[in-house]
Amino acid sequence: YEDTLVINWDHERDSFVVALDKRTGDELWRRGRPGELTSWSTPAIHEHEGRVHAIIAATGRTRAYDIRNGDVLWSLSGLGLNVIPTPIYDSGILYLASGKRDGNMIQVVDLSGASGDLDGSDALLWTRDRDTPYVSTPLLYRGQLYFFKHVRSILTSVDAATGQTLFSERLDLGNVYASPVAAAGRIYLFGRDGKALVLHPGPALEILAENTLDDGFDASP
């Protein structure tokens, strides 16, 4: 964000988050993350209510750090092990996800006035504990949240405001690590073995095209 690079290092020893000057590599601040085990989620950085939040989703707690000094602005527990999906932010609403084994969870958080420990507060708008993504990040597009459970090849879409399920269907896409992406009124899903689906966004599943590409996808296009 601007001149600051935020790196999260959650692992099985002394976990921490560090902010570096992008031009020199000099350390600006560092904060320990005691009790956090390995996670892979990329920090999401967003300006909200006059402060820039560096939001890191993790097994123990999701935390927002003030990017200027590393102070914890708020935190929330409830995700599962090995969190991978990146937090999604839109107009003051945060979407968090995890999906390893029995740790299926989506949390939707209203950040208006968020401060301190958010557990048990009205900031948590809704949750979901089934068919959530383990590796890929959900897609927020035109008021719907799309996410893929790669072990069972299930694509689910819910109303982003309420969590109401719009559809949840098994696809012949195999194993998926890449996050769904949207562009120009289309949604694209890519499997690890090269299968690709093009969808029309909306409350019902509508597949516009199925292709097999001569490559595999782990990263998100």
Name the helix and strand elements from N-terminus to C-terminus, one letter apiece.
Answer: EEEEEEEEEEEEEEEEEEEE
Number of H/I helices:
0
What percentage of the residues does DSSP assign to strands (E)?
over 45%
Lateral strand order in the biggest sheet: 4-5-6-7-11
Helix content: under 10%
- Poorly predicted regions: none
What is the gyration radius calculated from CA atoms? 18 Å
The biggest beta sheet is recorded as: 5 strands, mixed
Structure, explained:
This protein has 221 residues and is mainly beta. Helices cover 0% and strands 46% of the residues. The chain contains no helices and 20 strands. A five-stranded mixed beta sheet has the order 4-5-6-7-11, with no helix packed on it. It has a four-stranded antiparallel beta sheet with strand order 8-9-10-12, with no helix packed on it. It is globular, with a radius of gyration of 18 Å. It starts with a strand and ends in a 9-residue tail after the last strand. 36% of the residues are buried.
